[in-house]
Amino acid sequence: MVCSHVNKPPLPSKNLTTVFFFTLLFASTTINYAQTAIKHFIFFSQVREGIKNRDFYLNKGVIGVQMTYPWKVVEPNKNVYDFTAIEADLTFLRSKGKKLFIQIQDVTFNSTR
Predict the structure, then answer these.
(1) pLDDT digits (tens, 9 = 90+) for 5-58
(2) Which string of b and e fits 4-26 if b means at least 16 CB within 10 Å?
(3) Are the CB atoms for 65 and 101 separated by under 8 Å?
(4) Smallest Cα–Cα separation from 94: which of 34, 43, 51?
């Protein structure tokens, strides 16, 4: 038997208050998140003098730097470690209220280094 009339279930009624609440909740969360989550770091590579630039360390929108330190500087001889450069940069940056993101490189593609 073929029916030409099929009963469809009724569509759920939309509760305008619920839709408004979730829209408002979503909008307020993304606005608050965007204002507090972004932290800016400047990548100076191995140019350590860059952190002494007054325009950098007085910039309130930047919370720190990312510096690369070659492994051969950190370990100049087998099992002999020298953290002098990292400690000096960290001390200076802390005095200016900035953070240090350290990247240790064991390979470089620059033939002059």
Answers:
(1) 555 555 555 555 665 555 555 555 554 445 566 678 888 788 888 888 888 888
(2) eeeeeeeeeeeeeeeeeeeeeee
(3) yes
(4) 51
- Assigned token pair, 44: 């100076």
- Looking at residue 5, its pLDDT comes to 54
Alpha-carbon 63 to chain mean position: 10
- Between the CA of residue 46 and those of 7, 9, 41, 42, 62, what are the distances in Å? 72, 67, 15, 12, 18
* C-alpha to C-alpha distance for 58 and 54, rounded to whole angstroms: 6
Per-residue pLDDT at 23: 59
Angle at CA 30, nearest 5°, toward 26 and 34?
175
The sheet with strand 40-45 has its strands ordered as: 40-45, 62-70, 99-105
The whole model's pTM is what? 0.59
Q: Which residues contact 106 (CB under 8 A, 6 or more apart)?
A: 70, 71
Q: Which spans in the chain are helix H? A: 16-37, 54-57, 71-74, 84-95
